[in-house]
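hey
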């Protein structure tokens, strides 16, 4: 009887989970069909989410059908609507609304995360984002339509809510992007609203002077210790009572793990991530692994935990895939470990800033760091080619990834 490893999600963690499981089966001499790797996702494509702040958004997809076929991974279109760990089943709803139940012997939850949208009046109706592919496309279409409108302060103003990783990268891209859309005739007013007392609060003090200089040189301003009270089609009201006229408000504030984590009877942290052990097995839930943005995973023995980033998701996926196969077959597991941590933050046409370590010591900035960021974004984070030998090498969980 064929056993099944079921992977939920085709993002960075889901894709690498499936490919690493295939590698483990190959090494164990089990690539004979006795164990099926089945991946369920809305489409067989990797959405290159870290690049959604830049155009052309339509190009930010990498097809996976050929890669899965070469690795021996079966793909099934659909979204998982329910998980029943007691009976080891999930319900999958396809694009036509038909539901199917799938049994599993081992489960890997790699369904990622979504932007957190609080109950700010007007946010859902008027807020834009770069979180999901379709939302980034919507933003791009919105920006292009602005060129057909009369030039006003509201039309020419972009507000980015949230001054973290995504907010900074998005804001830094906007002045040149708006200028290009407007035929070089308009200078955009770009404003970041951050509720904390410093820009890039989670980035720490190390790279902040570089970030502030890059933003300032490109005309981006920011308002700190400020939040959004309400929004409408023409702007927003801040917590300080200021009205900002803006037809474009991009929300980047906060992430939450997939809602599917709520169907796993395990402990979760404040943003919904499941507690996992060093092998990425969900604590207290047999035969279930969580990875990527769905997992609260220690990267080392120093108290650091993986962030919701492709840098960590890729390594988490490789580890989860190997370990779920090893758990099924009784093989040796390879504990997840990713002590090396770097950041490479895109700062628009100005350049980028590259840091190393959890203290984020600046090692490179400007054009040189931008070249590294370009290489990361266009090469390092993309799937391997559809060559089985290359896939199996790339899926090694001991592979060092610093992107």
């Amino acid at each position: 009887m064929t056993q099944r490893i079921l992977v939920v999600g085709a993002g960075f963690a889901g894709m690498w989970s499936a490919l690493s499981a295939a590698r483990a089966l190959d090494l164990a001499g089990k690539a004979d069909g006795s164990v099926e790797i089945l991946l369920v996702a809305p489409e067989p494509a990797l959405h290159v989410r870290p690049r959604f702040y830049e155009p052309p958004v339509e190009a930010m997809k990498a097809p996976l059908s050929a890669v899965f076929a070469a690795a021996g991974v079966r793909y099934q279109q659909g979204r998982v609507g329910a998980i029943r760990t007691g009976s080891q089943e999930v319900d999958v709803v396809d694009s036509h609304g038909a539901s199917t139940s799938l049994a599993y012997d081992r489960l890997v939850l790699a369904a990622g995360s979504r932007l957190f949208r609080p109950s700010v009046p007007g946010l859902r109706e008027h807020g834009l984002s770069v979180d999901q592919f379709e939302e980034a496309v919507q933003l791009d279409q919105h920006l292009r339509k602005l060129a057909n409108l009369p030039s006003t302060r509201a039309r020419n103003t972009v507000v980015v809510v949230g001054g973290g990783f995504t907010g900074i990268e998005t804001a830094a891209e906007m002045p040149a992007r708006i200028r290009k859309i407007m035929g070089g005739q308009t200078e955009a007013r770009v404003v970041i609203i951050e509720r904390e007392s410093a820009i890039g609060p989670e980035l720490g003090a190390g790279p902040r002077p570089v970030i502030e200089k890059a933003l300032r040189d490109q005309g981006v301003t920011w308002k700190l210790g400020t939040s959004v009270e309400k929004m409408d089609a023409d702007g927003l009201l801040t917590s300080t009572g200021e009205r900002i006229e803006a037809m474009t408000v991009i929300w980047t504030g906060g992430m939450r793990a997939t809602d599917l984590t709520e169907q796993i009877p395990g402990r979760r942290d404040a943003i919904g991530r499941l507690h996992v052990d060093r092998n990425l097995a969900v604590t207290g839930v047999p035969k279930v692994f969580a990875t990527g943005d769905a997992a609260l995973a220690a990267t080392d023995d120093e108290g650091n935990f993986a962030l919701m980033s492709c840098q960590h998701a890729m390594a988490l996926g490789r580890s989860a895939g190997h370990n779920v196969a090893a758990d099924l077959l009784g093989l040796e597991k390879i504990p997840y470990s990713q002590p090396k941590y770097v950041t490479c933050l895109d700062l628009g046409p100005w350049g980028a800033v590259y840091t190393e370590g959890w203290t984020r010591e600046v090692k490179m900035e400007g054009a040189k760091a931008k070249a590294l960021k370009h290489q990361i974004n266009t090469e390092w984070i993309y799937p391997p080619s559809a060559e089985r030998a290359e896939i199996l090498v790339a899926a090694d969980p001991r592979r060092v990834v610093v992107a």
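The first strand starts at residue 3 and ends at 8. The chain has a mean pLDDT of 96.
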